[in-house]
Design goal:
With 476 residues, the protein is of the alpha/beta class. 38% of the residues lie in helices and 20% in strands. Helix 10 packs parallel to helix 15. The structure holds NADP nicotinamide-adenine-dinucleotide phosphate (NAP).
Length: 476
């Protein structure tokens, strides 16, 4: 009251009018004879039907009243439950966000069908929607890498922001992004993703003016995020620095999603244990066949099944190059074409010499067969030595050459192989064309299951990361 009286002469117009009303009300309250004050959670009707809930927000002492028999909440001033804002607009009072959040937590467990707001208005609502809305929690993401995969994920996130809120009860925001050369950003209120995507496309920088020059691990530390999503470029030789990014995130109690297969190929068991020890989630569906469920298919839909072996076509570039050679095109122009279409690496030897396929084979062997391999343990042969004559001879015998990835257990040891093999033209494997991929999984109880990903685009990669995020949210 004193601070309001002191302030009133400095105010004008509506603010002055409002302050005068407040002073009148508070003076009126102060002049009341108080019998006693109600307590939080106190029943305030004789039949036990009405309880008082202390819900302070921008002023202490605000209460809400809950009528059990009609699932009705008479909301206190700070409880602006209509979803617009938390009544924080009044310049006369300090708005305490933490108090408001605590108030919302208190009422989020109630069964509410109808809200009568202190400032007028009545809302009859579906209680499930209401509960989710009332309990809406923030969920902050830290993105490492803002290349093709990351931006495809961001596009899905922007387009589905509202449906994610409804589905999960979480308001998902990106609070940090790291790149190698395009600058980095931290914004605890949520980065404007559309703007960042446009900036990269037009200026090759993540922001027009303000970017941070910060080491990626420091950015993870300062992001204050709930999950770190590792989407930096793959280092096939050691999985770094992505492994160190993941270790840093686990050290900070952050969940991790990785689209980068390096960490799964080089240090899966250690990272999995770190996550388990801290009760954190570690998800990696995108690392093999983008968003096509491979790991999740086995984990969630084949309970009690043991995977005995797998066999697949998992590298687009080699598949495409052999196919072009079948059409009579030469090796060099096929690689050039694959690079133009954006699925071959700038350094094609990673694909051609079977390294990319070896990393995927390692990831599958480590996860599905409980292996502890690295890409160096894979018996690897690429397609560099394959000639047009080899391809033609195979074709004459109604066969095709395909780069096959295999994993199985022999004498208790997990074995991984990558090699070009002849397959009959009538075989499903022979009909996996261009950028499509296939994996066949043989299990003890369900026999052989085959999954095909048909001509994926970058959206399928974005979806893999998005689906991991939704799984994480639903398991929290
Ligand atoms: N593309 C796909 O279809 C696909 C499918 C499945 C999995 N993946 C995996 O997803 C990851 C990303 O693929 P992509 O196609 O998006 O690659 P990309 O377009 O080359 O983007 C890589 C991003 O990582 C950033 N980066 C590199 N090193 C970094 C570091 N130390 N700290 C922070 N950022 C760093 C790069 O920064 P600059 O922009 O400054 O260079 C770039 O933004 C790779 O590991 C890839 O294997 C991709």
């Amino acid at each position: 009251l004193e601070s309001l009286i002191a302030k009133i002469d400095t105010l004008e117009g509506k603010e002055k009018e409002f302050a005068a009303q407040r002073i009148e009300i508070i003076q009126g309250v102060e002049n009341c004879e108080v019998d006693r004050y109600v307590e939080d959670n106190e029943t305030i009707s004789d039949d036990g039907d009405v309880i008082c809930i202390d819900t302070p927000g921008h002023m202490p002492g605000h209460i809400s009243v809950y009528v059990k028999s009609s699932n009705t909440l008479i909301a206190g001033d700070a409880m602006n439950v209509t979803g617009h804002e938390l009544s924080g607009a009044n310049p006369l009072f300090t708005f305490d966000m933490e108090e408001a959040a605590n108030s919302i937590k208190k009422i989020s467990n109630l069964e509410i069908d109808r809200i009568i707001c202190y400032h007028g208005g009545e809302y009859i609502i579906d209680s499930q929607v209401a509960l989710k809305r009332l309990a809406l929690k923030r969920f902050n993401l830290c993105l490492i890498g803002f290349g093709n995969a990351s931006r495809a994920f961001c596009k899905i996130l922007v387009d589905h922001h509202e449906s994610v809120k409804k589905m999960t009860g979480y308001d998902v925001r990106v609070t940090a992004i790291a790149t190698k050369s395009k600058g980095s950003l931290i914004d605890k209120n949520g980065i404007d993703l559309e703007k960042a995507m446009l900036c990269v496309e037009t200026n090759n920088m993540i922001h027009e003016t303000e970017t941070l020059d910060m080491d990626t691990r420091s950015l993870i530390e300062q992001s204050g995020a709930d999950v770190m999503i590792e989407m930096s470029a793959l280092s096939i030789t050691d999985g770094q620095p992505a492994i160190s990014h993941i270790e840093k995130a686990f050290g900070l109690d952050m969940h991790v999603i990785t689209a980068n297969k390096g960490p799964i190929a080089w240090k899966y068991k250690v990272l999995k244990k770190m996550a388990e020890d801290k009760n954190l989630q570690f998800l990696y569906e995108t690392t093999v066949m983008d968003g096509t469920p491979v790991f999740n298919l086995v984990k969630y839909t084949l309970p009690g099944c043991r995977v005995k072996s797998f066999k697949g076509i998992l590298n687009s570039t080699t598949n495409f190059v052999i196919e072009e050679m079948e059409k009579g095109n030469d090796y060099a122009s096929a690689i050039k074409q694959a690079q133009l279409e954006g699925f071959a690496e700038a350094d094609p030897s990673l694909d051609i010499d079977g390294w990319d396929a070896a990393a995927k084979t390692t990831a599958l062997a480590n996860v599905l067969l409980d292996g502890d391999l690295t890409p160096l343990d894979i018996d690897r042969k690429g397609i560099r030595h394959i000639t047009a004559t080899d391809v033609n001879n195979a074709f004459k015998e109604n066969k095709k050459i395909k780069l096959i990835c295999e994993g199985y257990v022999e004498n208790g040891q997990v074995i991984g192989i990558v090699s070009p093999q002849l397959v009959n033209q009538s075989d499903l494997f022979a009909n996996i064309d261009a950028t499509s991929s296939l994996v066949s999984i043989t299990t003890d109880l369900m026999g052989e299951i085959i999954i095909i990903e048909k001509n994926p685009e970058i959206q399928q990669t974005g979806y893999g990361i998005y689906s991991d995020m939704l799984r994480l949210l639903s398991d929290l």
